[in-house]
Amino acid sequence: MPVLGGFHHVRLPVSDVGKSLEWYTRVLRLEVSIEFIEDGVLGAVALIDANRTLTLALREDPQRAAGLAGFNALSFGVPTMQALRVWAGHLDALGVEHSGIAEGSTGWLIGGIIDPDDMEIRLFTHERRP
């Protein structure tokens, strides 16, 4: 029986890879893993978290990025409620608007984090009552 072991990476279209690179590294604390230079121009970048548990690739493709505007395509897992509180403080310190911590259908979340292409990102924990 074939077995899957999680995601290798997720690729998102963005309208401006440089602008999105700055936002995702500053706001979500992701680090550059690989840069894809095409004809002397940065066309895509792979980002990785500090624990090396997830990879997010950003590919410059303005038309497709526009199609995701207003959509919640990404929800990242956060291990505990305390970690979710730390994220809320980090977002507040950066002046990044968000929903605050709210109860979701399977735990707690922070929603309303909007990336440069107007795509909503959420942070979830499966931990129940704080």
Automatic annotation (TrEMBL):
Pfam families: Glyoxalase (PF00903). It comes from the Bacteria. Residues 6-126 form the VOC domain. InterPro entries: Glyas_Bleomycin-R_OHBP_Dase, Glyas_Fos-R_dOase_dom, VOC_core. This is Glyoxalase. The lineage of its organism: Bacteria, Bacillati, Actinomycetota, Actinomycetes, Streptosporangiales.
